[in-house]
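Subject: design request, 503 residues
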C-alpha cells in the first residue's frame, strides 16, 4: 500500500486531494487539525502519533520529528543497506508528502504581533519533512503548493508521478523553505539581513536592450494578469509597474482616472465622470507621446474608451477589468497586450529594490501622499478651494515623474509635465515650451514640484507661464527668497515638508 503524509496549515483543496489519494489506495498519515478535518470528511486517516508510537508533546512542537517519519522519507529503496536498516527498525516508506508551513509571514505582517507570537509560528517539523522528501525526490513526491494537488492526482491516476514532475516539485520546496527561513532571519535580525526570493515567472526574449538577457521572478502576474497579446517584454513590465503605482494614487477616488505613460514616466493623466472623459483629458496633455505607450484606467475599460484608444498604436492597456464588448474590439489587434489589474493582490508593504554594483539597495516604497489642505501655507495668500483640489491632483502626479520633476495641472488633468532634468528650472522651461507648441494655455494652472526650489528662477518661470498656486516640500536655504517671489505676484504656495524624488 502506498503511503502519504498530509499535514497542512493552508487547508485549501486538501480534502479533495486526500479523497483522491484514498481512492487510489493510499494510507494517509496526518496530524492535528488536518487529521481532524479529513476524518470529519469521512476519509480514512491515521494519526502520526499512532504510527510512530510516540505522542505529540510540548504543545505540538514535537510530533513528526521521529525516525519512522524521516527514515520513511529519506530511505532509498534502491540501496539494499537502506532497505535492510528500514526493515530492522520497522520503518515503512512514505511515498508522498503534502505539507505547507505555519503562517509566519502572515503573522508578523499583523500590527501588534509580539516576538513570542512570531516565534510560535516558526515551523520546524514542516520544513524538515519537506526537505527530507525533496532530497529524496527521486522516489518521493513532495507538494508544498495546493495548486499542485490536482496535477499530481492526474499523474497518479495515469500510472505514476513522472521524474520530471518530482524534480519540479522538489525545486518548489527548496524555494519555499529558503524564502521562509529568509523571512525569519530578516524578522529576528531587525534589518541586519535581507532576503528576497521568488520563482521564475518568465524567461524574457531579452532585457532592456536586445543584447541583454532577462527573466521575471516572483508574483508580478498575480497583480498584472496578461489577457491578450504578445508576451510581455522587460520594458513592458517596468512600464506596467510604473503605471500601476500611478493609478494606485487615484484608485479610491470618486472619479475615473486614466494615465498614459511612456518610458516609465507619465505623459498625461486625467480624471472624469467615466474612463472616456478621463482619457480625453489625459490625452490632451500631449497627443504626440502616447504612440507606443502604456494606458491604465482605474475603472473597467468601456467600449467608448476602447474605440478612442484603438485609433492609436499602444503597447499595453491596463484596467481592473474589460467590458466584454470592449475586450472583443481590443483583441482584434493581435500584438497589443491587455492586462487585468488585481490591486488587492499587491503586497501592502513590499520594499522597493534596486540592484547596484556588488549590492542591493532596499527601501520602503514611496506610498506617502500629503493632503495640500494640511500643508503649511507660506505665502500671504492661501490657495482657494479650487486651487487646493488642483494641487492635490498635481501632487499625486508629480511624485511619479522622473526627478527633477514638475507638473502643471488643473484639478482634472495634467497640462504640461517636465522631468528628468539636472536643474529645477529646466523642467519648468521644457514643460512651458511644450505647452506653447501644443497650444495649451497654462494660465490659471497650479504647479507641483517634487523637491524644493533652490532658487527663485524656477518659480518665476512657472509664474510667467501662468501658474497661480504652487505645492512643494520646502526646505531650501533660499525658501524666503522663493516665498517673496510668490508674494510679489500674488501666488499662493504651500510646503508639504515631504519630497518625492524618483531617480
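Subject: RE: design request

Done. Sequence follows.
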Amino acid at each position: 500500500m502506498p503511503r502519504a503524509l498530509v499535514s497542512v496549515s493552508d487547508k485549501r483543496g486538501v480534502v479533495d486531494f486526500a479523497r483522491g489519494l484514498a481512492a487510489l489506495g493510499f494510507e494517509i498519515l496526518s496530524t492535528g487539525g488536518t487529521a481532524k478535518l479529513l476524518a470529519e470528511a469521512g476519509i480514512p486517516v491515521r494519526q502520526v502519533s499512532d504510527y510512530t508510537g510516540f505522542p505529540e508533546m510540548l504543545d505540538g512542537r514535537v510530533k513528526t520529528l521521529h525516525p519512522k517519519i524521516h527514515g520513511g522519507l529519506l530511505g532509498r529503496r534502491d540501496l539494499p543497506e537502506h532497505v535492510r536498516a528500514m526493515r530492522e527498525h520497522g520503518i515503512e516508506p512514505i511515498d508522498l508528502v503534502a505539507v505547507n508551513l505555519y503562517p509566519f509571514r502572515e503573522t508578523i505582517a499583523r500590527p501588534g504581533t509580539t516576538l513570542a507570537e512570531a516565534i510560535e509560528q516558526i515551523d520546524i517539523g514542516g520544513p524538515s519533512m519537506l526537505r527530507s522528501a525533496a532530497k529524496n525526490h527521486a522516489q518521493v513526491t513532495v507538494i508544498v503548493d495546493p495548486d499542485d494537488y490536482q496535477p499530481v492526482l492526474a499523474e497518479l491516476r495515469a500510472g505514476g508521478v513522472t521524474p520530471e514532475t518530482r524534480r519540479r516539485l522538489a525545486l518548489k520546496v527548496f524555494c519555499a523553505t529558503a524564502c521562509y527561513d529568509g523571512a525569519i532571519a530578516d524578522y529576528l535580525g531587525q534589518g541586519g539581513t535581507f532576503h528576497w526570493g521568488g520563482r521564475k515567472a518568465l524567461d524574457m526574449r531579452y532585457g532592456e536592450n536586445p543584447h541583454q538577457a532577462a527573466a521575471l521572478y516572483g508574483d508580478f502576474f498575480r497583480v498584472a494578469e496578461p489577457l491578450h497579446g504578445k508576451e510581455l517584454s522587460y520594458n513592458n513590465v517596468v512600464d506596467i509597474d510604473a503605471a500601476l503605482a500611478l493609478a494606485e494614487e487615484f484608485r479610491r477616488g470618486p472619479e475615473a482616472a486614466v494615465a498614459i505613460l511612456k518610458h516609465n514616466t507619465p505623459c498625461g493623466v486625467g480624471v472624469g465622470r467615466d474612463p472616456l472623459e478621463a482619457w480625453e483629458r489625459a490625452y490632451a496633455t500631449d497627443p504626440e507621446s502616447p504612440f507606443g505607450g502604456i494606458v491604465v484606467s482605474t475603472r473597467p475599460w468601456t467600449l467608448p474608451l476602447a474605440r478612442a484608444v484603438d485609433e492609436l498604436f499602444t503597447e499595453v492597456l491596463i484596467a481592473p477589468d474589460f467590458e466584454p464588448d470592449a475586450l472583443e474590439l481590443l483583441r482584434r489587434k493581435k500584438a497589443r497586450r491587455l492586462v487585468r489589474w488585481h490591486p488587492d493582490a499587491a503586497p501592502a508593504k513590499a520594499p522597493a529594490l534596486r540592484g547596484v554594483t556588488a549590492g542591493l539597495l532596499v527601501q520602503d516604497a514611496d506610498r506617502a501622499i500629503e493632503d495640500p489642505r494640511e500643508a503649511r501655507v507660506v505665502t500671504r495668500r492661501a490657495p482657494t478651494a479650487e486651487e487646493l483640489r488642483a494641487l492635490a491632483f498635481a501632487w499625486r502626479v508629480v511624485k511619479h515623474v522622473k526627478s527633477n520633476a514638475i507638473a502643471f495641472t488643473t484639478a482634472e488633468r495634467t497640462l504640461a509635465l517636465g522631468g528628468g532634468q539636472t536643474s529645477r528650472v529646466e523642467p519648468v522651461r521644457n514643460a512651458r515650451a511644450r505647452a506653447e507648441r501644443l497650444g495649451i494655455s497654462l494660465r490659471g494652472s497650479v504647479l507641483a514640484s517634487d523637491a524644493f526650489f533652490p532658487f527663485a528662477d524656477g518659480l518665476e518661470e512657472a509664474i510667467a507661464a501662468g501658474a497661480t498656486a504652487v505645492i512643494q516640500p520646502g526646505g531650501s536655504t533660499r525658501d524666503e527668497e522663493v516665498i517673496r517671489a510668490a508674494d510679489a505676484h500674488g501666488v499662493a504656495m504651500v510646503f508639504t515638508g515631504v519630497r518625492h524624488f524618483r531617480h
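The radius of gyration is 29 Å.
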